[in-house]
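Hey,
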Amino acid sequence: MSDSPVLVSQSGAVRTITLNRPAALNSFTAAMHAELLPALNAAAEDTAVRAVVVTGAGRGFCAGQDLNDPAMVVQGDQADVGAVIERFYRPLATRVRTMPVPVIAAVNGVAAGAGVNFALCCDFVVAARSASFIQAFSKIGLVPDCGGTWLLPRLVGRARALGLAMTGDKLPAEEAVRIGMIWQCVDDAALPDTVMALANRLAAMPSQALAETRRVIDAAMPMEFSDAITLEADTQRERGRSHDFAEGVAAFLAKRPAVFKDR
């Protein structure tokens, strides 16, 4: 396997991005960030890509920040962990949340710290049954980052968000599904095929509509009901002028599979 901290492969319309530091449970380093964000940007810009899968090499998804990387962590009076957030995690989380195609996190083992919240930034999290999720920040005197403070309470409610963030307890994948934090938990051996089947299904769907679905659901969360209806109307007005809407209606009426092209 390549020594690169990020591997990229393509199967049909599905781009797979693999975090590749298995000996360190794929923990984040400056070198990994230097390849991960460009890999996501490249997928966003490539019209041949209609779905993205993010996963980890070896026995873990991502153990969060590598505290041994001096390029990432400065301790003592000169510590500025906020600068690390601004430099690395804000652009990473924002990129994932604004991808023009669906993004699936295939969590094949432990996801901890920023690794959890990086996965939760994705549209779907499909986890192996042996996988687990740990909001490990409190154990080193920090608060959730990589979007965790926004994501957690919206996914599981305030009480569970506080419990997970304050205790830093390990959350098994099956429990993560039960409380609505992730989409699906499958047997370990079934994870690759399950994820690829979902990715191919999404790749055949109208990409613009899926990206807009993410946007309007997120935007509607703090809105009054009437404002959300207005947002729906404005968005549907634009979607109604698209090729994919015309194709979808035509395919429905003709009782044939639709061929979506907008990206």
